[in-house]
Amino acid sequence: MAGARILAGMLDFTDFDTRGYRTVNVPTGYGRWVRTYEDTVEDTMDLALLDRLTVPAWDSVRRAADLGCGTGRTGAWLRARGVAAVDGVDLTPEMLAVARGKGAHRRLVHGDVRTTPLDTGAYDLVIASLIDEHLPELRPFYDEAWRLAAPGAHCVLVAFHPHFIMASGMPTHFTDEDGEDIAISTHIHLLSDHVSAALGAGWQLAEMREGVVDADWLTVKPKWERFRNHPVSAALVWRKA
Ligand SMILES: C[S@@+](CC[C@H](N)C(=O)[O-])C[C@H]1O[C@@H](n2cnc3c(N)ncnc32)[C@H](O)[C@@H]1O
């Protein structure tokens, strides 16, 4: 896009925004979205991609750090695949309260994924699903994941695909109880931004999958017909060699 501004090496979502929704910060937004979050987030976005990964071997994971754990969807998915213990961190108390009720996590902590209070080198899996678009920069996330990871650990990140954010002009958003569509602060990270940040932190790429708007997607989102076959999410698996 001609004239798209590059901020600190990254694209600025406002250059792509076709919705113009009022934008709020992460804890404000998720604190209000929490009532309907699990009814609106689609498993095809993230859990279907996790299902397609060949690494890590989930049932051999003893301890996982679930960064941006939200209401516990990712944690519950991990436990169902045999992960022994999952510790979660999230910035939004209301999301953590729902996760607490779900009971999938061994420990739940209110905090920022870039500066968690979790133990250094304690995890053989660090996972973050659908949170990276809320981070202005990726490197602090990948650095913190590296600190938490034991030697040989994996880091799995599932992202709202940058192509889809740009092509749709749609930020992460929800509809509040008054019917207003509200955006939650959204940043665009190209896949090359992930590669640069993760390699810089020390990670090696082990696997990558992209999800497109396919027949399954169109069953749950018929109005996305114009995005048929566009990439909508991505899963990156990193290894601490
Ligand atoms: C779309 S939800 C994803 C939740 C969960 N991983 C899932 O897949 O359902 C994004 C979550 O990331 C959290 N989040 C965003 N930025 C964060 C940050 N810097 N530190 C901690 N949590 C953050 C939000 O509070 C929210 O619960």
Describe the protein:
By secondary structure, the chain is of the alpha/beta class. The protein has one domain (6-207, 233-239): 3-Layer(aba) Sandwich (Rossmann fold), CATH 3.40.50. 29% of the residues lie in helices and 27% in strands. The protein contains nine helices and twelve strands. It has helices at residues 26-33, 37-40, 47-52, 73-80, 93-102, 139-148, 162-168, 191-201, 215-220; strands at 6-7, 10-11, 22-24, 63-67, 85-90, 107-110, 123-129, 149-160, 173-175, 181-184, 204-212, 231-239. Strands 6-5-4-7-8-12-11 form a seven-stranded mixed beta sheet, with helices on both faces. A hairpin with a 2-residue loop joins strand 1 and strand 2 (10-11). Helix 6 (139-148) packs across helix 8. The model is unreliable at 1-7 (pLDDT under 50). Bound molecules: S-adenosylmethionine. S-adenosylmethionine binds next to helix 1, helix 4 and strand 5. Residues 26, 30, 41, 46, 68-70, 73-74, 89-92, 95, 112-114, 129-131, 134-135 line the site of S-adenosylmethionine. Residues 66-156 form the Methyltransferase type domain. One of its GO terms (molecular function) is S-adenosylmethionine-dependent methyltransferase activity.
Could you name the CATH homologous superfamily?
Answer: Vaccinia Virus protein VP39
| CATH-assigned fold name | Rossmann fold
SSE sequence, one letter per element: EEEHHHEHEHEEHEHEEHEHE
Q: How many distinct helices?
A: 9
Q: Main β-sheet, in a few words?
A: 7 strands, mixed
What is the CATH architecture assignment? Answer: 3-Layer(aba) Sandwich
Ligand kinds: S-adenosylmethionine
Distance between the termini: 38 Å
Under CATH at level 1, the class stands as Alpha Beta
Task: Identify the strand order in the major beta sheet.
Answer: 6-5-4-7-8-12-11
Poorly predicted runs: 1-7
Please tell me the overall pLDDT: 95
Shape: globular
Q: Portion of residues in helices?
A: 25-40%
| Number of domains as seen in the coordinates | 1
Number of strands: 12
Whole-number radius of gyration? 17 Å
Percent of residues in beta strands: 25-35%
